[in-house]
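To: structure desk
From: M.T.
Subject: fold request, one chain
Message: Could you run this one when you get a chance? Sequence is below, nothing fancy, just the single chain.
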Amino acid sequence: MHPDGPATLLMVAKTAGVSKTTASDALRGSGRVSEQTRARVLRAAETLGYVPNGSARHLRRASTGTIGLHVPEVLTRSVYYMAFVFGVVQGASDHDYDVTLITSGRRTPRVDGLVLGDPLSDDPIVARLMDAGLPTVTCERFPGVRQADGVVRSEHAEMLDTLLDHLRESGATRPGLIVAGDASDWAASVHRGFREWCARHGIEPLVETVPFDCSSDDIRAAARGLLAVRPSIDALVCGPAGAAADVLPLLREEGRELLLASCVEGPSMLQADPPVTAIDLRPREAGRRCAELLFDLLAGRAPAGTERIHPIELILRPSTRPLTPPT
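Reply: Done. Structure tokens follow.
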């Protein structure tokens, strides 16, 4: 730090004995600057403690220095989406960018590109943002007509296959599913994976659908519906985040011993009694990967239409231990 305040580019140039333009080119690694001059400028910058001004760099590139982020309105109640947002912010910070949370699609946002988290086919804001003409990355595919420039997605149907195989090995023969409709690619993948697994094993699929933005009451009503209509059900997979924790008290009330699993990991799964087997979607890492792909698109390092797979994992817990055989 200079005694009179932060070091400036002009101070670096004077210290190195070059023009301001030459100092700028040397620091950015551009222009026709000799290695000897570049090294002199870098030494001067280090000595003075010069820190480039991020906003000025973005202005020189005719850039806003900001990317936009939109997620479903369940953000304020969902640990998953909060972690996803922090991941996007981390990825943007790594590139000296800010993040603007977009809650309205009434006008084109002043941003360099967009990240859409789990875009819903019936979300009018998503539809308008997809038509904005900005480079766009989605976490999971957009179920609508338009396609994003880049997609970060996970193989949810395949992971559900692994979960259902585990339930079968633990003694379950009649699993049921509570799923959040098909408005998102994630929910549609879970739904499809469940039906395909049941078809392969000759089992009738037992499914109850709830709204994407479902409440605890919606979850309990769906669980009661499955238990009442299909008393032979011996395992329950809950799609929406936190749903398995909402179901546990109901199972105790009805005296039902079921294997219980969640399609979304979260603190409530670990703190439940018993702790609940869950699929860890690693949302913070997913958000960071979405930001990275967007910056690769902006820089021309990735072509439009790029898809990247975000790995997820199954975490086994006591809620899916083998069923006690009847005596």
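Reply (cont.): The CA atoms of residues 8 and 50 lie 6 Å apart. Let me know if you need anything else for the meeting.
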